[in-house]
Design goal:
Length: 115
């Protein structure tokens, strides 16, 4: 099931599945970033909140986090370095998070208090 889609990215999740798949839409890439066409990132649902938490932090931090889940690790740096791809990735991840909460795959909880 596609939970979010943009011009360059698609986020999918199988109902009852344990992971979310971020993938680049092959047909929509311009020539200058076409080499990233095979990038696919499979994030386990239990790690999804880590991705969301660091979504708008430093792009190197987000890239390092996504690197742990990517099949083609050499392409993650290029995707995070591209302003077009990074901006849309941030947007589709937020959209996917809302859809996953709505589908009850994720639950919102209050933050724990730190003492």
């Amino acid at each position: 099931m596609i939970v979010a889609r943009g011009r360059y990215w698609r986020v999918s999740w199988n109902r009852g599945g344990e992971s979310v798949v971020l993938e680049i839409l092959k047909g929509s890439l311009p020539d200058d970033i076409y080499e990233l066409r095979d990038l696919e990132i499979v994030v386990p649902l239990e790690k999804w909140t880590r991705v969301v938490k660091h979504l708008h932090s430093d792009r190197k931090l987000l890239g390092g986090l996504l690197l742990d889940f990517a099949k083609h690790k050499d392409k993650v740096g290029g995707a995070v370095a591209s302003d077009r791809l990074l901006w849309e990735l941030q947007r589709v991840i937020l959209d996917a998070t809302a859809s996953l909460v709505e589908a009850e795959a994720l639950a919102l909880q209050p933050a724990t208090k730190r003492e």
